[in-house]
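Sequence design from tokenized structure. All designs in this work follow the same two-part layout: the structure record, then the generated sequence. An example of the structure record is given first.
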């Protein structure tokens, strides 16, 4: 079978999203994204990346089979494979999968490269050894012209290193790849301002104008996967503007207004449901980790056998781990019940005791949601609907999925083995039942869950009290509010070793100017010392931070360097340079520092991406140390440990692209057909909003909003065309090489 596989076109490859060349005029950024997916049987949807000021590569190793028939390098007849991914001068490694020749990865790695000649994408597989050198397993590589002109799709031999001419004969195994090249252009910020203002105005209009909102039009034009992607971009865009609360309130009011059966409220994948779900994942990630991680770690470490379903019980397994002979189903059920409640108890204790740790932005969003539902369904028989609306999001779409697949929520580095996965599934089912507040308990096909019902019923009453406390919060959301909520003052949000540059390392070689220090970041302080136990610590108040930016690799001839610009009481600026071990770590520290310092006033609009060395700035060659910065800063709030900071321009560009897909439908639906109009009350449960005989005033509002939106889209179209023509003229005027 392997002999029939085509060889890689130059050894090397894995699973990636590669952004190609970026250049621009007047802050315009153009990025080419190459998505290389490693899959076993099907191509999975790819993550698009745009809006970067640098070309970058995201390597995603899917949780399908990504390599097969790897050479056994260990005495056990298996290997401990990991992948090294190279692009230009950058490289990253995946985690190591122990004792397998068929590794599964599910990681996202990001590589950044300065503009210049395109580079090949290379992936090497290695067998990790505790003692001695790692063993080479094979590699694949694709040159730039292949990535750009004929993206690979299929199985490829792993080839020997370093000579690609040698025939591996299929003995090193194979990888399956699918490559997709996309391109996008992010314009200067002022071109997106009209569309951004239009979207922001949508959530601030009075309720009677909801039908005329561009966001309502946007919701009509998307469905399925596109709606989920749109929800993520919109949540990030409104978070960056400090309007996440009004945005979610706007969507939930539309959803509630068009719902007639309270039992179906927020059960569909509407834009409101998807936006709230993404909001929880983005804003609540540190909170989720604090609540669930201790018990999740216990489940992974203890690996207890638990089963309540008699059809799935493995009595032979329980006999192998028992000294009392073959147990009965009843005995297995009794032991499993004790183990499950032993895990569920701490989980529920942590959840109901977490009111004070829940980010205020989430609590405010749930308070608005509850008020909206109470107004729509005030009847006594619908008393529980207000709680179900909140618990449906918090338990069914947040806690339960995180328990089921901890790796997807960064609770664990690896996926669970089959036995642990089954235990997590049972725990997730129990938490889901608690989140449903007892509805349909004892019904359906899973009657074998009945032994857990007493515990579940007891927990439900505690959850109702917890929800009451959760929404008992004062204050309204203000610009910067989400950032404050994301970083509690006393909580350590990130820590680890970094290399810190000495303040004035004159006379020292660059490699000696950086010293290893252990850093801790909280909402109040960035502190560092020689090691975690060292008593003497230096510190930088987070409130003094004015910018957190990347540093060009050429500044110190070192990769993965960032700068933290602070301002002292006298108004003087100071720059601290820190080097991370890889791009992923760099992005995570950038995200955490920007998030912690987001509420700070007097942020710098520009800074130097280089360093002041040899009496000039390496980036712009200005000779004055106090010269104004030459590069725009990224001062917007960032989310979690995501690799991408909130960038309003890039997010608006993505929304613009979504709108373009439905522009013709928008024109036909709202301008050419005089009998069609959108109103929340007229929407059906599936989101259809076309009605006949609409109120003339409502129709006029709808047409006005649609016409304004089309005008804004036309202006962006023209701007993109103008920049494209500039690019073509610049290429045409470029002198030919001899």
């Amino acid at each position: 079978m392997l002999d029939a596989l085509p060889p890689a076109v130059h050894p090397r490859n894995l699973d990636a999203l590669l952004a190609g060349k970026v250049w621009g005029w007047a802050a315009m950024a153009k990025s080419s994204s190459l998505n290389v997916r490693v899959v076993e049987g099907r191509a999975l949807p790819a993550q698009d990346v745009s809006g970067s000021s640098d070309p970058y590569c995201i390597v995603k190793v899917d949780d399908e089979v990504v390599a097969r028939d790897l050479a056994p390098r260990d005495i056990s007849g298996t290997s401990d494979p990991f992948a090294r991914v190279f692009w230009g001068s950058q490289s990253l490694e995946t985690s190591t999968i122990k004792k397998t020749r068929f590794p599964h990865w599910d990681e996202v790695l990001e590589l950044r490269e300065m503009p210049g000649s395109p580079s090949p994408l290379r992936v090497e597989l290695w067998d990790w050894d505790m003692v001695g050198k790692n063993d080479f397993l094979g590699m694949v590589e694709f040159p730039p012209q292949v990535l750009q002109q004929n993206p690979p799709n299929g199985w490829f031999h792993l080839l020997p290193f370093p000579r690609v001419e040698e025939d591996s004969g299929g003995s090193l195994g194979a990888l399956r790849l699918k490559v997709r090249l996309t391109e996008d252009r992010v314009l200067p910020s002022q071109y997106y301002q009209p569309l951004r203002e239009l979207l922001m105005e949508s959530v601030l209009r009075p309720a009677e104008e909801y039908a005329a909102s561009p966001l309502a039009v946007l919701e009509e034009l998307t469905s399925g996967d596109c709606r989920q992607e749109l929800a993520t971009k919109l949540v990030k865009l409104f978070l960056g503007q400090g309007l996440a609360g009004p945005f979610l309130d706007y969507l939930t009011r539309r959803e509630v207004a068009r719902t007639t059966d309270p039992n179906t409220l927020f059960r569909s994948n509407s834009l409101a449901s998807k936006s709230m779900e993404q909001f929880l994942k983005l804003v609540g990630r540190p909170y989720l980790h604090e609540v669930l991680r201790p018990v999740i770690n216990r489940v992974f470490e203890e690996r207890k056998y638990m089963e309540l379903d008699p059809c799935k019980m493995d009595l032979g397994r329980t006999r192998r781990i028992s000294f009392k002979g073959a147990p009965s189903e009843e005995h297995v059920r009794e032991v499993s019940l004790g183990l499950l409640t032993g895990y569920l108890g701490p989980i529920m204790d942590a959840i109901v005791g977490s009111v004070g740790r829940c980010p205020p932005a989430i609590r405010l969003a749930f308070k608005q949601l509850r008020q909206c539902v109470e107004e729509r369904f005030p009847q006594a028989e619908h008393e529980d609907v207000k709680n179900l609306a909140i618990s449906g999001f918090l338990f069914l779409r947040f806690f339960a999925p995180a328990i089921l697949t901890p790796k997807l929520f960064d609770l664990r580095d690896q996926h669970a083995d089959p036995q642990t996965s089954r235990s997590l599934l049972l725990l997730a089912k129990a938490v889901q039942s608690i989140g449903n507040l007892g509805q349909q308990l004892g019904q359906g096909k899973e009657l074998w869950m009945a032994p857990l019902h007493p515990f579940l019923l007891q927990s439900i009453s505690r959850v109702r009290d917890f929800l009451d406390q959760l929404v008992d919060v004062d204050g309204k959301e203000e610009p910067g509010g989400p950032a404050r909520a994301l970083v509690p003052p006393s909580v350590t949000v990130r820590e680890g070793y970094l290399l810190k540059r000495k303040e004035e390392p004159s006379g020292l070689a660059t490699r000696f100017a950086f010293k290893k220090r252990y850093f801790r970041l909280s909402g109040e302080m960035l502190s560092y010392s020689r090691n975690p136990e060292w008593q003497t610590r230096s510190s930088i108040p987070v409130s003094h931070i004015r910018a957190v930016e990347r540093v060009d690799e050429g500044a110190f001839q070192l990769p993965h360097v960032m700068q933290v610009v602070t301002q002292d009481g006298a108004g003087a600026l100071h720059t601290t340079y820190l080097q991370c071990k890889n791009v992923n770590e760099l992005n995570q520290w950038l995200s955490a520092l920007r998030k912690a310092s987001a509420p700070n006033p007097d942020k710098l609009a520009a800074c130097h991406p280089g360093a002041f060395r040899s009496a000039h700035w390496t980036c712009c060659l200005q000779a004055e140390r106090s010269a104004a910065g030459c590069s725009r800063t990224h001062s917007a709030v960032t989310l979690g440990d995501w690799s991408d900071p909130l960038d309003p321009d890039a997010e608006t560009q993505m929304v613009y692209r979504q709108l373009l897909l439905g522009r013709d439908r928008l024109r036909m639906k709202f301008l050419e057909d005089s009998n069609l109009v959108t109103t929340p009350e007229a929407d059906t449960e599936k989101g259809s909003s076309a009605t006949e005989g609409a109120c003339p005033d409502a129709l006029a509002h709808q047409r006005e909003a649609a016409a304004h939106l089309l005008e804004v889209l036309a202006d962006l179209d023209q701007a993109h065309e103008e920049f494209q023509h500039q690019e073509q003229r610049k290429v045409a005027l470029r002198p030919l090489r001899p």
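The radius of gyration is 28 Å. We note this feature because it recurs in several other targets discussed in the main text.
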